[in-house]
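Hi P.,

Sorry for the delay on this. The queue was packed all week, but I finally got your sequence through. Input first:
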Amino acid sequence: MLLTGVSKFSKVSLFSGLNNLRDITLSSDYAAICGYTDHDIDTVFAPALVDLGREEIRRWYNGYRWGGQEAPSVYNPFDVLLLLEEREFGPYWFESATPTFLVNLLKERGIFTPALTAWHSRPALLSRFDVDDIATDALLFQTGYLTLQGVHEEVPHRPLYKLGLPNLEVEISLNEALLPILGLSHHTFDELVFRLPRLLKAADMAGLEAHMKSLYAGLPHDWYRNNPIAQYEGHYASVFYSHFAALGVGVIVEDASHKGKVDMTVDFGGHIYLFEFKVVEQEPKGKALEQVKAKGYADKYLARGKPIHLVGIEFSSTERQITAFDVETLAP
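Then the structure:
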């Protein structure tokens, strides 16, 4: 017998027959049982791929993985079938159900949204569903919003799992759903859809600075006072990351280089943007931009032949506003 679509509850009777089931969720032997592989897409569906970008299909719908790095990643079948029918890319799986419970829970826990791109967890947490205390990573994993991206052992035989957003559909859709809990209304997001991509394509840095200041100025004062996430400096970074990610403009969080990690990289419209973000209480001194330059974060992108914009942003938690927006551009 095979049961699917259920979670393993941690509080069941000692003598329950369900305690004797084998959980194959993280077993490499069954990693491809519930999704299409690259081989499936390139063979079974080959005749239907005409005029659909193969790499775009991968970016939008692939990336689900169970059983370790050696296991194949799989595509969401629901998305693939609707893509082939409609011939347009869209968040078909996400739109099939509104994750109200999930969004409300993340709001209560003050989720730091950049952490969604690289979360670490223990296997025991991912396979347990405690109705009285649902771990955030377990909930996101079991509902399909986080997936396995790597395994490492700090202590022998005690693996830690690296989790992350599986693909572009999930990154765009989940961050858009989270914008209201960060204080950004759907009306504000509708304006972002038109404004932000144009600013990035034109490399309009003055316009981008004005855009970001307007964004933070629009957060309701009562929201700051009543929402627990406002207690954390991570709130400002969450607003910054999520409104970019919700547009699908190619965001990398904690982008690693040989000397450290820049807070966020955006590659869009023929330009590369490296953002370093700091929360300050005193007058800004340009430390954010200094760090980007001193650490050589741009070095890995110099050979791409695109303009690289180094952006140091400093935010005052008392003024609740950007107090420094320093830019330096490296020509290709």
